[in-house]
Specification:
about 300 residues; alpha+beta; 434 Repressor (Amino-terminal Domain); Immunoglobulin-like; 5-stranded antiparallel beta sheet; about 40% helix; about 15% strand
Length: about 300
């Protein structure tokens, strides 16, 4: 009676998921190597699962997925086995998160602003902003200011030539009073004194220099200095108003850098590409190799910056 009851208790003892899978594998006549090949696992891992030797296997998601795939390979329902595995296999210990709540400093805003590092960072930021503002003024505003001042100088009226003034006649001599019986003589008009030789000689020089100081007519457009050779380009600039121009060639050589008056023109021949900076660009007409170039797309704050290939 005692042996029969022991066999019954052994049969009724709960089996692990691995033991159920091993029994089904043996019933289907499969070896552990066959299952390992199907699951792309090692034979030792299949053996550890069947013997419930969980320390030899990774825990958590890997162990549940391994059991689920093993059951599907044998045609069993995996969910009951996974539930049994959760109760049978030891669970992973989740590390506790410890948040320190002591010795945490909360500095007032006034103390933070009084920190020397915060002050240094503020001063550095202010210097960076001032540097960018100065660079913007130098690149986009200064050339336009130079062109405007040049235009103002050109529009001033030309200096008039000094007029030749005739020398004033010397004062007439006062009549001498005689006896009361003698009638008073009327003053005789004196003829102008002759011009000294030095003044007469200097007069032609003044008269000759007067036309040179008169405003000259606007010069005609200049002809190109020379024809463009092979691999060179020719630039012609016509100025309707005063403008400042700087042109450099492919080697970085400055071909032209000056302020031009309104009504003038300039020609530049060199090896492209050319880098151009034109102040007061709306008053400039540019042609390159006989073709007119539109400066509007390249103009910003009246200054055009572009490259001619």
């Amino acid at each position: 009676m005692d042996s029969a009851s022991d066999n019954t208790r052994r049969d009724e003892a709960p089996r692990s998921p691995g033991a159920i899978l091993a029994a089904e594998r043996e019933r289907q006549g499969l070896a552990r190597a066959d299952v390992a090949q199907r699951l792309h696992m090692s034979v030792s891992q299949v053996e550890a699962l069947e013997l419930a030797d969980y320390p030899r296997l990774p825990r958590g998601t890997f162990l549940r997925g391994f059991t689920r795939n093993y059951a599907r390979t044998l045609g069993l329902d995996p969910e009951p086995l996974v539930d049994m595995l959760t109760e049978d296999a030891p669970r992973e210990r989740v590390p506790e998160i410890v948040v320190p709540t002591q010795n945490i400093r909360f500095d007032p805003l006034g103390q933070r602003l009084g920190n020397p590092y915060v002050k240094a960072a503020g001063i550095a930021a202010a210097l960076v902003v001032l540097g960018f503002a100065a660079m913007y003024w130098w690149l986009f505003i200064r050339p336009n200011g130079v062109a405007t001042s040049a235009a103002t100088v050109v529009k001033k009226p030309a200096i008039e030539a000094p007029r030749r003034v005739a020398p004033a006649p010397p004062p007439a001599e006062a009549p001498v009073a005689e006896a009361s019986t003698t009638p008073v003589e009327q003053p005789v008009a004196q003829s102008p004194a002759p011009v000294p030789a030095r003044t007469a000689a200097a007069a032609p020089d003044v008269a000759a220099s007067a036309p040179a100081l008169a405003p000259a007519p606007a010069p005609a457009p200049a002809e190109p200095l020379r024809a463009a050779g092979p691999g060179e380009g020719a630039i012609r600039l016509a100025f309707r108003g005063a403008a400042w121009v700087e042109i450099t060639d492919a080697r970085g050589k400055v071909l032209l850098s000056r302020t031009h008056a309104g009504g003038s023109s300039a020609d530049v021949v060199g090896r492209p590409p050319f880098n151009l900076v034109i102040g007061n660009a709306p008053e400039v007409r540019l042609t390159y190799n006989g073709r007119e170039v539109d400066l509007v797309p390249h103009t910003r704050v009246a200054v055009a910056r572009f490259t001619l290939p």
